[in-house]
Write a structure and sequence with these properties.
The chain is an alpha+beta fold. It folds into two domains: 79 residues, no CATH class; 68 residues, no CATH class. 21% of the residues lie in helices and 26% in strands. It is built from three helices and eight strands. Helix 2 links the parallel strand 3 and strand 4. The longest helix is centred in the N-terminal third of the chain and has 13 residues. It is elongated.
Length: 163
Protein backbone atom coordinates (compact mmCIF):
# COMPACT_ATOMS: atom_id res chain seq x y z
CA UNK A 1 0.00 0.00 0.00
CA UNK A 2 1.04 3.55 -0.62
CA UNK A 3 1.97 5.79 2.29
CA UNK A 4 -0.68 8.34 3.09
CA UNK A 5 0.51 11.92 3.32
CA UNK A 6 -0.65 14.50 5.85
CA UNK A 7 -2.08 16.57 2.96
CA UNK A 8 -4.23 13.62 1.85
CA UNK A 9 -5.48 13.11 5.41
CA UNK A 10 -6.38 16.79 5.78
CA UNK A 11 -8.03 16.87 2.35
CA UNK A 12 -10.13 13.77 3.09
CA UNK A 13 -11.22 14.99 6.52
CA UNK A 14 -12.20 18.41 5.17
CA UNK A 15 -14.11 16.91 2.21
CA UNK A 16 -15.80 14.01 3.94
CA UNK A 17 -16.86 16.02 6.99
CA UNK A 18 -18.39 18.65 4.69
CA UNK A 19 -20.69 16.09 3.04
CA UNK A 20 -24.27 16.20 4.28
CA UNK A 21 -25.96 12.88 5.07
CA UNK A 22 -26.51 11.08 1.73
CA UNK A 23 -24.19 13.63 0.12
CA UNK A 24 -22.26 12.38 -2.89
CA UNK A 25 -18.56 12.45 -3.67
CA UNK A 26 -17.60 11.45 -7.21
CA UNK A 27 -14.04 10.29 -7.58
CA UNK A 28 -13.53 10.14 -11.40
CA UNK A 29 -11.29 7.07 -11.64
CA UNK A 30 -12.96 5.16 -8.81
CA UNK A 31 -16.67 5.80 -8.46
CA UNK A 32 -19.38 7.55 -6.54
CA UNK A 33 -19.42 7.50 -2.74
CA UNK A 34 -22.33 8.50 -0.52
CA UNK A 35 -22.01 9.58 3.08
CA UNK A 36 -24.06 6.89 4.80
CA UNK A 37 -23.24 7.64 8.43
CA UNK A 38 -21.52 10.04 10.80
CA UNK A 39 -18.12 8.67 9.77
CA UNK A 40 -19.06 6.32 6.94
CA UNK A 41 -18.79 6.43 3.14
CA UNK A 42 -20.25 3.79 0.82
CA UNK A 43 -19.10 3.13 -2.75
CA UNK A 44 -22.37 2.93 -4.73
CA UNK A 45 -21.07 3.31 -8.29
CA UNK A 46 -17.84 1.72 -9.50
CA UNK A 47 -15.82 2.99 -12.45
CA UNK A 48 -13.32 0.62 -14.04
CA UNK A 49 -9.83 2.02 -13.57
CA UNK A 50 -7.72 3.03 -16.57
CA UNK A 51 -4.74 4.26 -14.58
CA UNK A 52 -1.27 2.95 -15.33
CA UNK A 53 0.87 1.68 -12.45
CA UNK A 54 3.31 4.58 -12.88
CA UNK A 55 0.58 7.22 -12.50
CA UNK A 56 -1.17 5.67 -9.52
CA UNK A 57 -2.01 7.89 -6.59
CA UNK A 58 -3.97 7.45 -3.41
CA UNK A 59 -7.15 8.61 -5.08
CA UNK A 60 -7.06 6.09 -7.96
CA UNK A 61 -8.53 3.00 -6.30
CA UNK A 62 -11.10 2.07 -3.69
CA UNK A 63 -8.46 0.16 -1.67
CA UNK A 64 -6.58 3.38 -1.03
CA UNK A 65 -9.75 5.25 -0.08
CA UNK A 66 -10.62 2.45 2.36
CA UNK A 67 -7.09 2.55 3.82
CA UNK A 68 -7.27 6.31 4.21
CA UNK A 69 -10.67 6.01 5.88
CA UNK A 70 -9.32 3.43 8.28
CA UNK A 71 -6.42 5.68 9.24
CA UNK A 72 -8.68 8.63 10.05
CA UNK A 73 -11.45 6.70 11.77
CA UNK A 74 -13.93 6.47 8.89
CA UNK A 75 -15.61 3.27 7.70
CA UNK A 76 -15.53 2.94 3.90
CA UNK A 77 -17.88 0.21 2.67
CA UNK A 78 -19.13 -1.35 -0.55
CA UNK A 79 -22.73 -1.03 -1.65
CA UNK A 80 -22.24 -1.05 -5.41
CA UNK A 81 -25.52 -0.55 -7.26
CA UNK A 82 -24.04 0.18 -10.70
CA UNK A 83 -20.66 -0.46 -12.27
CA UNK A 84 -19.16 0.96 -15.43
CA UNK A 85 -16.45 -0.21 -17.83
CA UNK A 86 -13.56 1.97 -18.97
CA UNK A 87 -15.72 3.34 -21.84
CA UNK A 88 -18.38 4.49 -19.40
CA UNK A 89 -20.88 1.77 -20.35
CA UNK A 90 -22.82 0.03 -17.58
CA UNK A 91 -21.54 -3.48 -16.79
CA UNK A 92 -24.19 -6.07 -17.57
CA UNK A 93 -24.27 -8.24 -14.45
CA UNK A 94 -27.80 -9.66 -14.09
CA UNK A 95 -28.63 -10.50 -10.48
CA UNK A 96 -30.40 -13.66 -11.63
CA UNK A 97 -27.16 -14.96 -13.15
CA UNK A 98 -24.86 -14.27 -10.19
CA UNK A 99 -23.12 -17.54 -9.41
CA UNK A 100 -23.67 -19.02 -12.89
CA UNK A 101 -20.58 -20.69 -14.33
CA UNK A 102 -19.58 -21.99 -17.78
CA UNK A 103 -16.43 -23.60 -19.12
CA UNK A 104 -14.85 -23.41 -22.57
CA UNK A 105 -13.03 -26.40 -24.08
CA UNK A 106 -9.81 -24.33 -23.84
CA UNK A 107 -10.16 -24.48 -20.06
CA UNK A 108 -11.35 -20.93 -19.39
CA UNK A 109 -13.96 -20.75 -16.64
CA UNK A 110 -16.34 -17.79 -16.69
CA UNK A 111 -18.64 -16.82 -13.86
CA UNK A 112 -21.00 -14.02 -13.00
CA UNK A 113 -20.07 -12.20 -9.80
CA UNK A 114 -21.43 -9.06 -8.17
CA UNK A 115 -19.49 -5.92 -9.07
CA UNK A 116 -16.54 -5.23 -6.82
CA UNK A 117 -13.38 -3.18 -7.25
CA UNK A 118 -11.04 -6.18 -6.91
CA UNK A 119 -12.21 -7.96 -10.05
CA UNK A 120 -11.60 -7.45 -13.75
CA UNK A 121 -14.68 -8.00 -15.88
CA UNK A 122 -14.77 -9.14 -19.49
CA UNK A 123 -17.80 -9.14 -21.73
CA UNK A 124 -18.88 -12.26 -23.59
CA UNK A 125 -19.60 -11.16 -27.17
CA UNK A 126 -21.58 -13.36 -29.58
CA UNK A 127 -20.95 -16.45 -27.44
CA UNK A 128 -17.20 -16.25 -28.03
CA UNK A 129 -14.71 -17.29 -25.38
CA UNK A 130 -12.77 -14.21 -24.19
CA UNK A 131 -9.58 -16.31 -24.26
CA UNK A 132 -9.59 -18.52 -27.39
CA UNK A 133 -12.37 -16.72 -29.32
CA UNK A 134 -14.20 -20.00 -30.09
CA UNK A 135 -17.96 -19.72 -30.31
CA UNK A 136 -18.53 -21.70 -27.12
CA UNK A 137 -21.12 -20.13 -24.87
CA UNK A 138 -24.92 -20.26 -25.05
CA UNK A 139 -26.93 -17.22 -26.09
CA UNK A 140 -27.76 -16.43 -22.44
CA UNK A 141 -24.10 -15.39 -21.96
CA UNK A 142 -24.14 -12.79 -24.77
CA UNK A 143 -23.21 -9.31 -23.56
CA UNK A 144 -22.79 -10.46 -19.94
CA UNK A 145 -19.78 -9.19 -18.01
CA UNK A 146 -17.98 -12.09 -16.37
CA UNK A 147 -14.96 -12.84 -14.23
CA UNK A 148 -12.56 -15.24 -15.90
CA UNK A 149 -10.44 -17.96 -14.32
CA UNK A 150 -7.48 -19.25 -16.34
CA UNK A 151 -6.26 -21.78 -13.77
CA UNK A 152 -7.20 -24.79 -15.93
CA UNK A 153 -5.48 -23.25 -18.96
CA UNK A 154 -2.27 -22.77 -16.98
CA UNK A 155 -2.45 -26.34 -15.63
CA UNK A 156 -2.94 -27.80 -19.12
CA UNK A 157 -0.03 -25.72 -20.41
CA UNK A 158 2.32 -26.80 -17.61
CA UNK A 159 1.51 -30.48 -18.24
CA UNK A 160 2.26 -30.06 -21.97
CA UNK A 161 5.56 -28.37 -21.13
CA UNK A 162 6.53 -31.27 -18.85
CA UNK A 163 5.91 -33.86 -21.57
Amino acid sequence: MMAISQNEVEFALRLWQSLVPNGEWILPKVGKYIRTGETELTLVEMYSPTVSANERSLFDHHDFIAQLGNEIGWNVTLGIERAFDSDGDVLNIPKGMIGDVAVCSCGLVIRVEPANPWQVYQQVVDGKCPHCKKNTFEVKWNDIHVVTDKTAIRLKQSIREEE
